[in-house]
Design brief:
The structure is a single chain. The protein is an alpha+beta fold and about 130 residues long. The protein has 2 domains: about 35 residues, no CATH class; about 70 residues, no CATH class. It is built from 3 helices and 8 strands, in the order H-E-E-E-E-E-H-E-E-E-H. Strands 1-2-3 form a 3-stranded antiparallel sheet, with no helix packed on it. A 3-stranded antiparallel sheet has the order 5-4-8. A two-stranded antiparallel sheet has the order 6-7. A hairpin with a 4-residue loop joins strand 1 and strand 2. The radius of gyration is 21 Å and the shape is globular. The chain starts with a helix and ends in a 15-residue tail after the last helix.
Length: about 130
């Protein structure tokens, strides 16, 4: 019986990726046609700043167009589990839209020269 299932295994390579079924009920996929969401290429993205109710900067960041960056709970409470800090109600303010590779360079400069408390990059505050 096991050999019969192995014979049912199939593979497919197409434009969007590599898919296969192993004959034991498991289907897998590898997307080699797509790039990772954090890749520094020219796909559209948005540079944003996260601010508290008083307009104080909490974080600079980038997110891909069409995707949510933060949960409603985080924006409403402003509680950061990683740092265990409470910032109060937060607002995500778009600063600029453009190609991701350009926005990454702008974000790095901003984080080097004017980081927020949630910018944990190793270069945060090291711009002089």
């Amino acid at each position: 019986m096991r050999d019969w299932w192995k014979a049912q295994a199939w593979r497919f390579e197409g434009e969007l990726g590599r898919f296969w079924h192993d004959g034991f009920g498991r289907t897998s996929a590898r997307n080699f046609g797509r790039v990772h969401g954090n890749t520094a290429d020219g796909h559209p993205a948005i540079l944003y700043k996260l601010v508290d109710k008083g307009g104080n900067l909490v974080k600079w960041g980038i997110h891909n167009v069409g995707q949510r960056r933060y949960t409603d709970t985080f924006l409403e409470t402003g509680f950061c589990k990683k740092t265990r800090r409470f910032f109060g109600e937060l607002q995500l303010v778009p600063v600029r839209a453009g190609p991701r590779d350009l926005l990454l360079r702008i974000e790095r400069w901003l984080v080097e020269h004017s980081p927020g408390p949630l910018n944990h990059e190793v270069w945060a505050g090291k711009g002089g």
